[in-house]
Design a protein that fits this description.
The protein is of the alpha+beta class. 34% of the residues lie in helices and 20% in strands.
Length: 527
């Protein structure tokens, strides 16, 4: 076992209170914790100065890579402003769950092509105090009429807040409303999306007008992005709660506007949408546990398989190509058209089973959607959340639901539209609750393989997280071998690594956004 990681003899200490947020208890199964409290009075106003730092006895740092003494919490996100807003939420009395929720809603404004309100996602949450790790599943599955996905992000974030958060839900939506209504400079992250996929936005005048200047040119880095209609929708969610989106006037308008442009989304689809909470897949890693999400969001399965194949040995680009060929061949055997597995999910995390399945491969390799956005957060109480979000395709269906400002997502399919490659990952001790690693990736299967490369590097090879992120990556999906030698970027992940575990040694936590993206790692420390 590497000196870079140590489980430690202690158990996580009690903390004064993660409380439960205010959202939709009946629908999401709130687990009550004695002593946890709800913080909320005046916090909407307190969160509005979104990039002015934090309040109280808090030291704030925002940079590409962060590690400080007296660590309190950290947030890493694919879009810088979202990471800052998540940090501010924690500084105002929240925890890691609140930081993720606030960061998500900010990304729904600042990075709508991958994290819009019309999409969905999946999270892994780890509670060191309770020694519980759970999946929160709010994937954008098909509506009853097909063709369009039922939005899951709003209900999923409400579930995360209600089950684990300390702040009121409204306080976490409010900053995003301000961003949308007042406008914000286009970030490098959104500029990259627009440069790659802006050609998809020409068919719908509503969405075209949002992302183009008055002279017809595409918005670019630093241009003002103002989304007043989206701001009004966020305002209704903030004021009326999650049910405004799923059964209220906003939900009715969303369904009617979707139908008006040919998308068969109904108010019943919205009312009937449920968040699923269940245990993750678990496999042994060193002397702790690796947790990944099961199919249909099974990028983490690739991570677990690749991690076992790496085993601290050869991690060269050539070896990465060999591993990815085997895993993608196996994936073509077990993955069904709907993303489910033909073999027991628990068997999928075993490299030996993956090799056996690869030998049976005859079908074409599955096509997977690579676009996604992610947020990862941890606090000094050892609570951590890793989430991946998707619109099922770049900018979803590239159609906006009328004057809601919400971009719709297409229904998942076996033609590369969907969420099968999403890959939140955690590594923690099931015996004492200590958290060591949390990440989430974008970029399809190469992103999931990159998580294995980084996790192997920090926990088996004792590399600092920053150096692990710089390791060269390579991938072979069975048809073409690619590496990063020509400037290609393979995968994009946000990660947190605590070499001696948290909550026992939170000062060892390192946070990193990927060099291959345009995100930000932010951190809070006690004065």
């Amino acid at each position: 076992m590497s000196d870079a990681y140590h489980t430690g003899p202690g158990t996580p200490g009690k903390h004064p209170g993660r409380g439960r947020g205010a959202a939709c208890e009946a629908d999401i199964g709130v687990r009550r914790h004695p002593g946890r409290r709800l913080v909320g009075i005046g916090l909407v106003a307190g969160l509005l100065p979104i990039v002015l730092g934090s309040c109280g006895n808090v030291r704030s740092v925002a940079s590409d890579a962060t590690q400080i003494e007296d660590f309190r919490a950290g947030v890493v996100a694919d879009e810088p402003r979202a990471a800052l807003i998540g940090r501010t939420a924690i500084a105002n009395g929240g925890n890691a769950a609140d930081g993720v929720v606030a960061a998500y809603f900010a990304m729904s404004v600042s990075l709508p092509g991958t994290a819009g309100l019309g999409g969905g996602g999946i999270c892994i949450a780890h509670d060191a105090e309770e020694r519980i790790t759970e999946v929160i599943d709010f994937l954008p599955r098909a509506a009853a009429g097909g063709r369009v996905a039922v939005p899951g992000n709003v209900r999923g974030m409400a579930a995360l807040n209600a089950r684990y958060g300390r702040l009121q839900f409204a306080a976490l939506v409010g900053p995003a409303e301000v961003l949308a209504t007042g406008g914000l400079p286009v970030s490098k992250a959104l500029t990259s999306d627009l440069q790659q996929y802006g050609h998809l936005l020409s068919q719908d005048p509503k969405i075209h007008n949002v992302f183009h200047r008055l002279d017809g040119a595409m918005l670019g880095d630093g241009d003002n992005l103002r989304q007043t209609e989206l701001g009004a929708s966020l305002g209704q969610i903030r004021a009326q709660g999650v049910n405004a989106f799923y059964s209220g006037l906003l939900g009715q308008k969303l369904a009617e506007n979707a139908q008006a442009i040919g998308a068969p989304l109904t108010i019943d689809d919205l009312r009937n949408y449920k968040v699923a909470i269940y245990p993750p897949l678990e496999t042994k890693f060193l002397d702790i546990s690796l947790y990944v999400t099961p199919p249909p969001a099974s990028g983490g399965v690739l991570t677990a398989q690749a991690l076992e194949m790496l085993s601290g040995g050869d991690n060269s680009p050539a070896r990465q190509m060999e591993i990815s060929r085997q895993l993608m061949a196996a994936r073509s055997v077990w993955m069904q058209p709907d993303g489910s597995s033909s073999v027991p999910p628990a068997d999928l995390v075993l490299a030996e089973r993956a090799r056996a399945l690869a030998a049976q491969a005859t079908a074409p390799l599955p096509v997977e959607e690579p676009t996604a956005a992610s947020v990862v957060a941890v606090d000094s109480d050892g609570f951590a959340v890793a989430c991946a979000f998707t619109m099922n395709a770049p900018f979803g269906a590239a159609r906006m639901a009328g004057d809601t400002g919400i971009i719709l997502a297409p229904a998942p399919s076996d033609q590369g539209v969907g969420f099968s490659a999403l890959s939140p990952v955690m590594a923690a001790s099931k015996f004492n609750g200590q958290l060591y690693f949390a990440s989430a990736a974008a970029g399809g299967a190469p992103g999931a393989l990159a998580e294995a490369l980084v996790l192997d590097a920090v926990m088996r090879r004792a590399l600092p997280l920053d150096q692990a992120m710089q390791l060269p990556r390579a991938f072979d999906g069975g048809g073409q071998s690619v590496d990063e030698s020509g400037g290609l970027r393979l995968g994009r992940l946000n990660a947190i690594f605590c070499s001696r575990g948290t909550p026992s040694s939170p000062d060892t936590c390192q946070l990193r956004n990927d060099y291959r993206g345009n995100g930000l790692a932010t951190i809070l420390g006690e004065d």
